[in-house]
Amino acid sequence: HLYKEEPDGYPTFWFEAGDLYSAQNSTEAFCSNTEFNYYMDEDENHYWNSVNLSCYNLHYSEAVRKTAKSGFVTTLIKRRHSRTLPCSSGVDPCPAVSASPGAGLSVRQVGNACTCAKHQDYFAAGVETMQLFVEHSFLTSRIYFTGSEGTVHGSSTYKTSTPSRKTVKTCLQQVNQEGCVREFEP
């Protein structure tokens, strides 16, 4: 007699501000530090060059994005200051942009549109002090545990196990790697 069942799993996670706001009250070593400049291209106006990075204080709600399956914490912000005018107008769009913060001044013409732009890059200050919480649980039939009828619940929040309630240990794994990088007991 072959019995097969796939337990229902219920993982969830969330972020909390942690020490985000207190960390933003101090100056980080990477703020306005040329050692952290990054050059992807020799052209100083290249979009992915990150130079003269300063720090920007994000609110918690601006720093994190969460979906049902993924979470993202913003660590770098790219701002583009630009102005586009019709080339035929004879007005140069660059003077309005040159006073903006940022590095490089690029001019681009597409059809009759002349655009002048500068990029300013910022590190998101303090986001490394935010906290990530993970909770997961499952529901399955009791047959795998005792051979009797009924269901078994499991959760990473249970501190002790009983025949119908099981503790769940959290294992962080790296992609394409066997074993746990770090384990968390309930």
Strand content: 35-45%
Ends apart, CA distance between termini: 35 Å
Counted beta strands: 14
Main β-sheet description: 4 strands, mixed
Low-confidence stretches: none
Q: Helix/strand/pairing class, anyone?
A: mainly beta
Query: Count of helical segments?
Result: 3
Order of helices and strands: EEHEHEEEHEEEEEEEE
Strand numbers in spatial order across the main sheet: 1-10-11-12
How much helical structure, as a percent, in the residues?
A: under 10%
- Overall 3D geometry? elongated
What Rg do the Cα atoms give?
26 Å
Average pLDDT across residues? 83
Structure description:
By secondary structure, this protein is mainly beta. The protein has three helices and 14 strands. It has helices spanning 20-23, 60-63, 94-98, and strands at 8-9, 12-16, 54-56, 64-66, 71-73, 76-86, 103-110, 113-124, 131-135, 137-141, 151-155, 165-167, 170-172, 182-184. The protein is elongated, with a radius of gyration of 26 Å. The model has no long low-confidence stretch (mean pLDDT 83).
State the main characteristics.
4-stranded mixed sheet; 14 strands; 3 helices; mainly beta; 186 residues
In short:
With 186 residues, the protein is mainly beta. It has helices spanning 20-23, 60-63, 94-98; strands spanning 8-9, 12-16, 54-56, 64-66, 71-73, 76-86, 103-110, 113-124, 131-135, 137-141, 151-155, 165-167, 170-172, 182-184.
Helices and strands in order:
Elements: E1 8-9, E2 12-16, H1 20-23, E3 54-56, H2 60-63, E4 64-66, E5 71-73, E6 76-86, H3 94-98, E7 103-110, E8 113-124, E9 131-135, E10 137-141, E11 151-155, E12 165-167, E13 170-172, E14 182-184
Parallel strand pairs: 3-8, 11-12
Antiparallel strand pairs: 1-10, 2-9, 4-5, 6-8, 7-8, 10-11, 13-14
